[in-house]
């Protein structure tokens, strides 16, 4: 303001006023503001890019991120040995329900994007998990209608995905991958896709990632799968450590096709 | 005192700003995935093609497995064996590259297929605007069709397998042709070319095999 007041003192006064302006101009606020704006923009871009890159990487399997499901709340983990095979007439005393690892049938359940309308024998489903499949199990008394359709859309036609009802399930929905389980109640929960992204055919977490999901030639018929058995297994069941496995019979080695399970005689099959 | 120091401060801040802008540009470059010759990133033709062609192949392998095991005619069984083993090897290559690129080996769940290529490709089957993607890739069989294939046997299985596989090959051709021309890495382009050429030849073979059996191809698209 002062330098703008009218001054009748002539050139000298004007010069003095100018000098005072120059000395007062020690800090070039315009430049500082411009620099600050650039810094803010740069910081914004930096932060945005960082967050974007981070969120994409969060559920992507890599050398640095071998188990992306560690970023998902509620995932239960267990270590299981792979490749322990039981025969069609044996049962396994699984330590989890639904099971997500351990000894399993010689023949895997079809996991090539199949939605089973009926509950399937655990021993076959666990073998598919070994191949890298993600199994969506649901309680048929609690999930139906739109929620069921939402889940089906995540499975039907998708590689290494399978879905089946699981009578008596203690939550509406349960996701299984080898050594990993996540129980939840909402079909729209974002953790479902995160679980699939993180663990399907995960080369670090699945014993045989990318193993076959179709079952041609094994005798497992996806249109008529061995049925789920609700009763607890008896004392003759194979233990989780693999003890109790009966060696494959010579006759079975030469047979093509899975023999009909005999322990499920009580079930209304065929 | 103040003038020299003030100027130094201004220069320091300016230098910091330049560094920050440089870092930000670097991050943006990473984001926009323009790293030719090196690692293809999310959204690239290479990654999109590898993920989608893998899914496409896995279904062909499933269908071929049925005909290889249970086909009535030895020619059909041999063709199925050829398709199955070739595509299984190619699918494994694609998965290996995706792993090395730190990309998902299968398309992320819930996202449409084929966003990496324009929908109007070569008389493309895709609905919607260019790059919007599709939920079902061209040529893919439905679950009902797969169940029907599994339920058939004998000469009926042979014919239905040839029909489904012919349509499947037709559907994969646009994807392979586009990737052969547009992928940034040479090994992806070379594989895509081989897929396009091989499936084109097999398409002609399957047409003649269907004609021999008095059967028509399924409508495509």
Automatic annotation (TrEMBL), chain A:
Transmembrane feature ranges: 27-51
Record InterPro entries: DUF3105 (IPR021454)
Highest taxon of the lineage: Bacteria
Region (Disordered): 202-270
Keywords: Membrane, Transmembrane, Transmembrane helix
Pfam families: DUF3105 (PF11303)
Biased composition (Low complexity): 254-270
UniProt name for this protein: DUF3105 domain-containing protein
Organism the protein comes from: Actinokineospora fastidiosa
UniProtKB/TrEMBL annotation, chain B:
Domain of life: Bacteria
Pfam families named among the record's database cross-references: DUF305
Residue ranges of domain DUF305 in the record: 46-210
InterPro entries: DUF305_CopM-like, Ferritin-like
Name the UniProt record assigns to this protein: DUF305 domain-containing protein
């Amino acid at each position: 303001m002062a330098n703008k007041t009218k001054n009748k003192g002539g050139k000298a006064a004007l010069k003095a006023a100018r000098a005072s302006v120059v000395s007062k101009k020690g800090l070039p606020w315009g430049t500082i503001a411009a620099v600050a704006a650039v810094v803010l923009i740069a910081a914004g871009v930096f932060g945005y890019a960082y967050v974007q890159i981070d969120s994409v990487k969060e559920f992507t399997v890599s050398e640095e991120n071998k188990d992306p499901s560690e970023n998902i709340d509620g995932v239960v983990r267990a270590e299981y040995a792979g490749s322990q095979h039981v025969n069609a007439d044996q049962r396994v005393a699984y330590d989890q329900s639904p099971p997500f690892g351990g000894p399993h049938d010689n023949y895997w359940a079809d996991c090539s994007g199949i939605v089973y309308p009926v509950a399937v024998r655990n021993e076959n489903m666990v073998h598919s998990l070994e191949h890298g499949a993600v199994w969506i199990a649901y309680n048929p008394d609690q999930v139906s209608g739109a929620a069921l359709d939402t889940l089906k859309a995540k499975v039907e036609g998708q590689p290494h995905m399978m879905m089946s009802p699981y009578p008596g399930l203690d939550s509406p929905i349960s996701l299984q991958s080898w050594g990993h389980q996540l129980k939840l109640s909402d079909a729209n929960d974002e953790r479902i896709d995160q679980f699939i992204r993180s663990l399907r055919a995960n080369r670090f977490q699945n014993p045989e990632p990318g193993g076959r999901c179709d079952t041609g030639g094994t005798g497992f018929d996806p249109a008529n799968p061995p049925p789920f058995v609700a009763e607890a297994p008896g004392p003759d069941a194979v233990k989780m450590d693999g003890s109790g496995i009966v060696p494959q019979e010579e006759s079975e080695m030469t047979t093509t096709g899975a023999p009909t399970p005999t322990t499920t005689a009580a079930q209304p099959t065929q | 005192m103040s003038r020299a120091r003030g100027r130094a401060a201004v220069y320091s801040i300016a230098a910091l700003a330049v560094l920050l802008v440089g870092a930000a540009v670097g991050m943006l470059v990473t984001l926009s995935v323009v790293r030719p010759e090196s690692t293809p990133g999310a959204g690239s033709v290479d990654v999109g093609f590898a993920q989608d062609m893998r899914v496409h192949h896995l279904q062909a392998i499933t269908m071929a497995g049925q005909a290889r095991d249970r086909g009535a005619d030895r020619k059909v069984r041999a063709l199925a064996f050829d398709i199955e083993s070739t595509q299984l090897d190619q699918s494994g290559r694609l998965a290996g590259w995706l792993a090395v690129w730190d990309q998902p080996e299968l398309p992320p769940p819930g996202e449409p297929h084929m966003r990496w290529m324009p929908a109007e490709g070569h008389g493309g089957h895709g609905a919607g605007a260019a790059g919007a993607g599709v939920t079902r890739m061209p040529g893919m069989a439905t679950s009902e069709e797969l169940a029907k294939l599994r339920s058939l046997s004998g000469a009926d299985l042979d014919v239905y397998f040839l029909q489904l596989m012919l349509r499947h090959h037709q559907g994969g051709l646009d994807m392979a042709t586009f990737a052969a021309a547009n992928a940034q890495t040479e090994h992806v382009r070379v594989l895509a070319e081989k897929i396009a050429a091989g499936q084109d030849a097999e398409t002609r073979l399957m047409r003649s095999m269907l004609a021999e059996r008095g059967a028509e191809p399924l409508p495509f698209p």
